[in-house]
Amino acid sequence: MVRVKPFVMGIVSGSAAGALYVLFSTPSSGQEFRSNAVSKSKELNNLLRRSGQDGKQFKNQVTETSKETLSLIRHLSEDISSSVEGWKQTIAPHQKEIQKYLEQIEENLADLEEKAKQHRTSGNEETPRN
């Protein structure tokens, strides 16, 4: 599963480091620096709060999608199972009839082979081949 916490912590710490660098590297008076520090602190706090909310939303979406997927797979499996069962019930009576026809065909072939043998045997006696 996707690990969101390390990703969010990386974004937060990178943002904090960038904000601190900008704050300390800009030449400004003490009053401006404090004002910037307070505003950047509020921005960072808002970013953290939004990141936490986004993480929760992502987690909820993944959970909901997983539940929906499992439900869909369960229903699909039930549908396939009932379709296969219905197909088996539809085919079963015909299968017996087909088996009977195959047995009849085998019997007829055996009779034809026997008649063909008799015909060849009787045909050989009547006319000799050169």
Automatic annotation (TrEMBL):
Basic and acidic residues composition bias: residue spans: 112-130
Chain segments carrying region Disordered: 110-130
InterPro entries: Desiccation-related_membrane
Protein name: Gas vesicle protein
Lineage of producing organism: Bacteria, Bacillati, Bacillota, Bacilli, Bacillales
